[in-house]
Write a structure and sequence with these properties.
The protein is mostly beta strands. The chain has 2 helices and 16 strands.
């Protein structure tokens, strides 16, 4: 079975997240039914070390560890992207309803909006209304354990789509609302 963990949750509205060994930047591809971090990640207990949430007001990470006595957060927000450090490849199916039209508040500086859909969408189309205030979009390459950085100014871009379960960092020149 090559070290793969598969977790199945009953229901038709699953968001399937595929984690590789190491760091993974992810977002939930559905509206969560349960927002409790320990409940959602209980099938992976002992398989991950950290879950990190970006705090856009302080422009830094809050770091959750199941082993720590104090936890800076225990509630997850399906409007955000998160980092997880996982010891071995794993799939996690999270129960939730499919997202409809969505909005995300983007702040000046870095923000980590979740991508709530189960389909791929083209960056240039999806962000066309905010492109003038957008500087960078970063996605995490879990295979290489490094960021890929999209710049509207670059002649060659490392990616052109956001896909199911992918997390993102967006750098904005101004506060705006993103409408998916």
């Amino acid at each position: 079975d090559q070290g793969m963990i598969v977790v199945n949750v009953e229901g038709n509205d699953n968001c399937n997240l595929n984690f590789k060994e190491g760091w993974n930047l992810f977002s939930f591809c559905s509206k969560l039914q349960d927002i409790n971090l320990q409940n959602i990640f209980s099938p992976l207990a002992g398989k991950y070390r950290y879950i990190m949430k970006w705090d856009k007001s302080k422009q830094g990470f809050d770091i959750y560890s199941a082993e720590a006595s104090e936890k800076p957060f225990t509630i997850l927000n399906d409007n955000e992207s998160y980092f997880i450090y996982i010891y071995e490849p794993a799939d996690l199916n999270v129960l939730g309803s499919e997202a409809g039209l969505e909005t995300r508040n983007l702040t000046q500086g870095w923000t980590t909006p979740g991508y709530p859909y189960r389909i791929s969408r083209v960056i240039e189309t999806m962000y066309s209304l905010i492109m003038s205030d957008l500087r960078y979009i970063m996605k995490w390459n879990a295979s290489n354990q490094e960021f890929e950085i999209y710049s509207k100014e670059a002649s060659e871009k490392p990616f052109h789509e956001l896909n199911q379960g992918e997390g993102q960092f967006i750098y904005m020149f101004d506060n705006l609302t993103l409408q998916y």
